[in-house]
Design the sequence.
């Protein structure tokens, strides 16, 4: 299946060809929003729940519109309500507890949660975030959600016999959340599984998690999987069997040294390729990004290529992140024009897979 | 009658205040990590943190007290990361963990510099009356974590690492015990010939140490042939990770025997679930029964380094280990 993609093409799209432009998720938070969080966490400050909610709404609205002004076809709110990709969810799932920070490297720490009781669906995770963003947005909204394998792998497991069992339990909760998101109108969900890149031998566990996640999710909901910073040859082509429409992969960071991995075996799904490095503070030129996009066309034909940054861009200065988005959209539109004019030879023929697999 | 000695393999989590203070003083980037020539403020912060973790161990009632290895930003690669003949490069994954260290690239003679670990031990000795335990990476693991651009030959490189560690051990203050941590013996099984050389390198360090020496392995059971070679090293005990793999370990000991003393990783250094003293004691008894041996000394320890844990659970686990050793004494 390559999925329901046309619903995301804007009515006023200027070119015949359509390269779907989007983001992976996180975006730099405005400085005033960081300050608001500090005040909210400061017991002595006169800054309560209402003020903090207002700050999150304001930041979400601002970044949603910033994405739209950059011209992106599918947007999100830059995860303005979220602090970290595991912590945010662990706070909402019954069974998790927090004991304190642990080292990742050097003086970089992470409040790694513990599963201290059986996990159960607690308060809503992302429905309110989606409803707000969808309300203020003109363009379609994508919802990034941390996948169950990463939620399990980046937690202490005190309860379940194996990490695999915990991952499956969490997959059922992710399924429940996605059902609620779909009910609220979401049509594009991206499951983030960065832990897969670090433990590639577990790709079958991630596959089983995804089977549980997609259970009873309607066919017109586009599902993507984001993986980053790993050795893709150890998970590809096996991951093509996953029940998702699109794979969003980081490749600009390594200067496309792993691109050949995806050419050795036909890429039968949609390919969301990173065309921007999320960890360099220089804005890539339109010309450079166009060259990157053409590399994607060596893997899949234009109707199956999605153009996005490598990863979430929250660590960049905001003006750099904005500049990258703008140049990325311009580069995609110029490539579309060149495709329309027959000026680009499409390398990948890519027989379209059928929608019933 | 078996004597149970409660201890740890060191590499503790920094106290939370020290995480913040040192991040502020040093920074968050790879160029900000420990270099061996820290400023006075950084040294003072580490001194205070070291005193704190020594007191935590003494209050818990551990039988061996380690320096804590709080300065080891690069974990087991630390002794090379601060070496004059070594350049630290990019951030690389630390075994199969979601942790990273700077890749140490050896670019010159390793005999030219040393004493970093001994200096920290000396600072610890001022606060410890008895039972001071040194911790070093084993030679095979340290070589495995590093990249050689100087010696050009694996065997020569391992020898140079072993010689460097021997000199380090010779400059130690008086210590009761030395733990040589050798996870690479499990994680990256030595090839034919390499297994024998690894055992000889461990033997060289053990011979230089005026202390009880434990060669501690973890993240699984050591492969059979490598274990057979390790038995040839003149160490006082070999350490096993009973959390990760107890069956293969028991098989190895049944098949090849072990030393008169043994170290048993009976507490999980990578999970917040705190083992009860009774559980710890049961695991020790189980191992003795399975191997049908009453050991002279059992070092009851966490299986791995403990920096993976949040501070509260880390402290609970030290207490559980100490109480497990006492439990045994009460029943004797």
Sequence:
């Amino acid at each position: 299946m390559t999925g329901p993609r046309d619903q995301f093409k804007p009515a006023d799209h200027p070119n015949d060809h359509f390269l779907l432009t989007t983001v992976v998720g996180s975006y730099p938070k405005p400085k005033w929003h960081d300050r608001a969080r500090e005040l909210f966490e400061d017991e002595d400050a006169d800054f309560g729940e209402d003020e903090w909610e207002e700050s999150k709404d304001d930041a979400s609205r601002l970044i949603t519109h910033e994405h739209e002004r950059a011209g992106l076809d599918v947007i999100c709110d830059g995860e303005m309500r979220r602090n970290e990709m595991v912590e945010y969810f662990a706070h909402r799932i019954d069974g998790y507890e927090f004991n304190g920070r642990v080292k990742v490297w050097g003086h970089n720490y992470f409040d790694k949660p513990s599963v201290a009781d059986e996990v159960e669906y607690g308060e809503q995770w992302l429905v309110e975030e989606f409803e707000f963003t969808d309300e203020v947005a003109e363009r379609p909204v994508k919802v990034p959600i941390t996948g169950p394998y990463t939620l399990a792998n980046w937690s202490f497991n005190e309860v379940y016999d194996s990490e695999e069992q915990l991952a499956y339990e969490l997959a059922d909760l992710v399924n429940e959340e996605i059902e609620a998101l779909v009910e609220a109108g979401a049509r594009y969900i991206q499951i983030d599984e960065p832990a897969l890149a670090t433990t590639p031998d577990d790709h079958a566990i991630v596959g089983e998690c995804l089977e549980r996640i997609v259970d009873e999710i309607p066919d017109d909901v586009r599902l993507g999987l984001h993986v980053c910073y790993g050795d893709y040859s150890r998970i590809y082509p096996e991951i093509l069997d996953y029940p998702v429409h699109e794979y969003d992969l980081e490749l600009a960071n390594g200067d496309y040294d792993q691109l050949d991995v995806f050419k050795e075996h036909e890429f039968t799904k949609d390919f969301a390729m990173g065309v921007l490095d999320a960890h360099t503070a220089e804005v890539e030129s339109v010309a450079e990004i166009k060259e990157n996009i053409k590399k994607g066309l060596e893997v899949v034909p234009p109707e199956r290529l999605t153009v996005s940054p490598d990863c979430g861009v929250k660590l960049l200065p905001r003006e750099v992140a904005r500049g990258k988005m703008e140049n990325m959209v311009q580069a995609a539109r110029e490539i579309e024009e060149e495709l329309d004019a027959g000026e680009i030879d499409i390398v990948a023929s890519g027989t379209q897979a059928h929608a019933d697999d | 009658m078996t004597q149970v000695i409660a201890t740890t393999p060191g590499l503790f989590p920094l106290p939370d205040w020290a995480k913040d203070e040192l991040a502020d003083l040093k920074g968050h980037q790879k160029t900000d990590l420990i270099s061996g020539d820290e400023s006075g403020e950084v040294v003072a912060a580490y001194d205070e943190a070291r005193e704190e973790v020594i007191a935590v161990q003494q209050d818990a009632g551990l039988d061996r007290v380690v320096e804590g290895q709080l300065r080891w930003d690069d974990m087991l690669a630390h002794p090379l990361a601060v070496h004059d003949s070594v350049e630290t490069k990019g951030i690389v994954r630390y075994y199969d963990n979601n942790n990273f260290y700077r890749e140490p690239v050896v670019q010159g003679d390793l005999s030219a510099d040393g004493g970093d670990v001994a200096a920290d031990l000396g600072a610890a000795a001022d606060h410890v009356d008895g039972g001071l335990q040194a911790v070093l990476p084993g030679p095979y693991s340290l070589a495995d974590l590093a990249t050689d651009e100087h010696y050009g030959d694996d065997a020569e490189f391992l020898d140079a690492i072993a010689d460097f560690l021997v000199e380090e051990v010779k400059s130690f203050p008086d210590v009761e015990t030395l733990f040589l941590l050798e996870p690479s013996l499990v994680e990256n099984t030595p090839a034919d010939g390499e297994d024998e050389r690894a055992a000889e390198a461990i033997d060289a360090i053990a011979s230089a140490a005026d202390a009880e020496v434990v060669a501690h392995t973890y993240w699984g059971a050591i492969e059979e042939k490598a274990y057979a070679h390790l038995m040839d090293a003149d160490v006082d005990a070999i350490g096993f990770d009973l959390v990760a793999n107890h069956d293969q370990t028991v098989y190895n000991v049944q098949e090849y025997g072990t030393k008169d003393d043994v170290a048993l990783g009976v507490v999980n250094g990578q999970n917040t679930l705190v083992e009860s003293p009774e559980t710890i004691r049961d695991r020790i008894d189980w191992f003795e029964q399975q191997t049908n041996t009453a050991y002279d000394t059992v070092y009851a320890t966490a299986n791995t380094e403990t920096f993976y844990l949040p501070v509260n659970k880390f402290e609970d686990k030290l207490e559980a280990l100490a109480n497990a050793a006492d439990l045994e004494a009460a029943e004797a």
Summary: The two ends of chain A are 6 Å apart (CA to CA). Residues 6 and 18 of chain A are 9 Å apart (CA to CA). Chain A touches chain B at residues 99-109, 112, 114, 116, 153-154, 156-158, 195, 198-199 (CB under 8 Å).
